[in-house]
Specification:
- With about 240 residues, the chain is an all-beta fold.
- The chain has 2 domains: about 5-80, Thrombin, subunit H, CATH 2.40.10; about 95-200, Beta Barrel (Lipocalin).
- It has no helices and 24 strands.
- Strand 3 (about 30-35) and strand 4 form a beta hairpin.
């Protein structure tokens, strides 16, 4: 069966190599190959997340939360892959978690702030949440203000990306930020907040395998692929 035959298709995610995940309107998910052929039907799964190589973690949609691992190339369930774990150093007193090298999130009441590894306050507790820096230098910290708008700070607390959108997330494999607007649209910006792809899409997804040369998007009920110039790209 081909993806073009799926009547209740909701979105297609970017190809992470040979394979891509797709979602249906009834909350199920499956996997296709570069020919658009369905290698895992969207029958039993609500989550299909890429782990490593051709292996995905799957979660059943029956409410049990049962998970398994699936090799899309072999088209069969496999054992959980072994992934390396890098331990973090011990947290300073009153810190909640490490959010960047030598920077910790701390909590005061219901709000979060940022301190250094010695417990000195870098940014007072004025944020509704603090994320973990995951850019290559780990020098940009994701935070949300009390209005629920997302921005990014440097390690000294200076604003890099202003608080303008409900969600801004750094995509390590691409070196760009994906952002979500109040109008429920998606786009891309660079690490300094400069616009790359305007937020005019109902869905947007890219992967390091093809980068911004092949971006999966949805707009006006269509599911297709574009490049960074917003030119349509044929995949299957």
């Amino acid at each position: 069966m081909n993806i073009q035959e799926v009547k209740n298709l909701k979105k297609i995610w970017a190809f992470d190599g040979i394979f891509a995940v797709f979602d249906t309107k009834d909350g199920k998910t499956g996997i296709i190959n570069r020919k658009g052929e369905i290698v895992l039907p969207a029958d039993n799964w609500e989550i299909a997340g890429h782990i490593v190589d051709d292996i995905y973690i799957l979660q059943m949609c029956d409410g049990s939360g049962k998970q398994t691992y699936y090799d899309a190339a072999l088209r069969k369930e496999v054992a959980k892959p072994e992934l390396p774990i890098t331990p973090e150093p011990e947290l300073p007193k009153n810190a909640e978690f490490w959010c960047a090298p030598k920077r910790c999130a701390f909590k005061d009441g219901e709000l979060f702030g940022i301190m250094d590894e010695k417990g000195n306050v870098i940014v007072p507790a004025t944020f509704s949440s603090v994320g973990i820096a995951n850019n290559p230098k780990r020098d940009q910290i994701s935070v949300k203000d009390q209005n629920g708008l997302n921005g990014y700070l440097d390690l000294d607390g200076k604003v890099i990306i202003p608080f303008e959108h409900p969600y801004v997330g750094y995509q390590v494999e691409l070196g760009v930020h994906i952002f979500h607007t109040k109008e429920n649209k998606w786009g891309y910006m660079d690490a300094k907040g400069n616009l790359i792809i305007p937020a005019i899409y109902d869905h947007i997804s890219a992967h390091k395998a093809y980068g911004l040369d092949e971006i999966a998007v949805a707009k006006d009920g269509r599911f297709y692929f574009i490049n960074a110039k917003q030119e349509e790209v044929k995949v299957f």
